[in-house]
Amino acid sequence: MTHKCKSSNKARTVTIIIIIVIVTVIIIIVSIVIFVKLMRRRDKKEMSLTNVESETMEVKNIESLKYNFSIVRAATNCFCENNKLGQGGFGVVYKGKLGDGREIAVKRLSKDSRQGDIEFKNEVLLVAKLQHRNLVKLYGFSLEGSERLLIYEFLQNGSLDKFIFDPTKRLLLNWQKRFTIIKGIAKGLLYLHEDSRLKIIHRDLKASNILLDTEMNPKIADFGIVRLFNHEETQGNTGRIVGTYGYMAPEYARHGHFSAKSDVYSFGVLVLEIVTGQKNQRFHNAEITEHLLSFAWNSWQNGTTDLIDPALKAESNSLNEIMRSVHIGLLCVQENVRDRPTMSSVVNMFNSPSLSLLVPSEPANFSTGPDTSIDK
Question: Where is the Protein kinase domain positioned along the sequence (predicted)?
Fold first, then answer.
């Protein structure tokens, strides 16, 4: 009898222990579930707060870029004609000086712009975030009624065209300075195409849109008609052709098709202009009238140095580098888009003198002159 009681007590004890273990396990599981749910709620809340803070930062950033219109007007002396630096299809550029002593370049956009205020601010914010030593820095903007102003850093030496096409000033640019300018433009374009947050196609790369700092380093300017892409996008189409003939890729000028390779074409034209000191337009060569691209192609085909700016011909030690630059320029202006290199390949070609280059085909020849800006 005693033995049976002991067995019964032992069984009850085991049962109680099992129940306690099961209850404990259930409590632990429920606690874990509750804890996970609470953590998820907290994460969502923190994420929500982060998004709010991010949006606040975006607003704060765009507001921090805003300049009072009256301040900019005073800085340019009421947009005085004497302060005018240049004019293009998208507006007039004035020199100005802020109260803190900073010199600025103010682009006063044409009043017939179709862009809304929000779109304008978004593009300003994007361009302001582009930071590269070979891009002109955007300080900010001003909006008042129909007035839209872009405020950029002022570069004392002005634009490349003022040097390269001037018989006297281009003597200041020896080959090493020109080569530095070419490579700097290439690096700036590479950043826009591949290294910035979005792929950016400039669409109006030309000598007058390359500005020079005090040390003659180049900076790409005028982002008025840039086109933004996601990195997986490669090309686009438009019925509104904007840009400058002479620098414009044939597929863009004829059909409105553009891509990063359109900028590569414009870069190739720039390279040939920098080497020759000639604009890409009809000019007289002996008794023949021809365009720069055909002149460069024929000279390269014949192995002559006729195309080289006479101011550079004394630099015999640089002859191979100059002719290699012509070769790269001709590769960039190929009529077939697929035959043109990417800007990463171009930069590699300039940085690797021993790298073999492909043989270019004859470039397209339809230009009407680089000073013919269009917007249609």
Answer: 79-355
SS3 211: strand
Tell me which residues are annotated as active site.
204
Contact 251, 258 (CB under 8 A): yes
Strand-pair category, 91-97 with 103-109? antiparallel
What would the pLDDT profile of 224-270 be if each residue is shown by its tens digit?
Answer: 545 544 444 444 444 454 567 788 888 877 777 778 999 999 999 99
Instruction: Give pTM, 2 decimals.
Output: 0.76
Is 313 annotated to bind a ligand? Reply is no
Q: Which of 47, 156, 44, 161 is nearest to 97 (CA)?
A: 156
* E-strand stretches of 221-320: 227-229, 235-237, 242-244, 257-259, 283-285, 288-290
Q: Which residues of 165-184 are buried (b: 16+ CB within 10 A; e: fewer)?
A: beeeebeebebebbbebbbb
Q: What's the per-residue H, E or C state across 116-133? A: CHHHHHHHHHHHHCCCCC
- DSSP codes joined into one string, 254-267: HH-EEEHHHHHHHH
